[in-house]
């Protein structure tokens, strides 16, 4: 009897047309994080300390995405793509930003040890972490470690 039911189910299901999704739904509006910080700008202002923490700098740094000259950023040529792949329309959003800057709540400027930020692509799942190593920073390094973790608040 069980075999008969299994045969009937197989025949019924086997004769039903099953189609995959032929089109993607209309994309929802991205809740852009460009209003938090505009990584699409041609220059970024980073506020950082030197290696020994005695001197502080406010530097306008060329974007790794649009700096054709690679002036001071020799390791970012692969990010300068045509068409560009860092825009909100491509699914990129700001994951985190640690670049220092003016803090309105305290009325002071915060200087960080290593300016960095990360972008997340909601379509591909790719995360790009960008770390700025200034040429005026006497501390040299050849390896960087990036850790991802989930913290609850």
How would you describe the overall organization of this protein?
The chain has one helix at residues 2-14, and strands at 43-49, 56-62, 92-98, 101-103, 108-110, 116-121, 127-131. It is mainly beta and 153 residues long. The radius of gyration is 24 Å and the shape is globular. Helix content is 8%, strand content 25%. The longest helix is centred in the N-terminal third of the chain and has 13 residues, at 2-14. The protein has a 3-stranded antiparallel sheet with strand order 3-6-7, with no helix packed on it. A two-stranded antiparallel sheet has the order 1-2. The chain has 1 helix and 7 strands. Mean pLDDT is 73; it is low at 13-28.
């Amino acid at each position: 009897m069980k075999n008969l039911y299994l045969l009937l189910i197989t025949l019924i299901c086997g004769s039903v047309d099953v189609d995959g999704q032929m089109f993607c739904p209309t994309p929802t509006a991205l809740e852009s994080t460009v209003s938090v910080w505009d990584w699409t700008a041609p220059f970024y202002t980073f506020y950082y300390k030197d290696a020994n923490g005695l001197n502080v700098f406010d530097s306008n740094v060329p974007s790794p995405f649009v700096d054709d000259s690679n002036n001071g950023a020799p390791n970012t040529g692969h990010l300068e793509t045509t068409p560009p792949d860092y825009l909100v329309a491509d699914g990129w959003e700001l994951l985190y930003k640690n670049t220092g800057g003016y803090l309105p709540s305290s009325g002071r400027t915060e200087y960080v040890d290593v300016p960095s930020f990360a972008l997340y692509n909601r379509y591909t799942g790719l995360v790009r972490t960008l770390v700025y190593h200034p040429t005026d920073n006497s501390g040299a390094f050849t390896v960087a470690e990036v850790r991802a973790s989930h913290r609850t608040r």
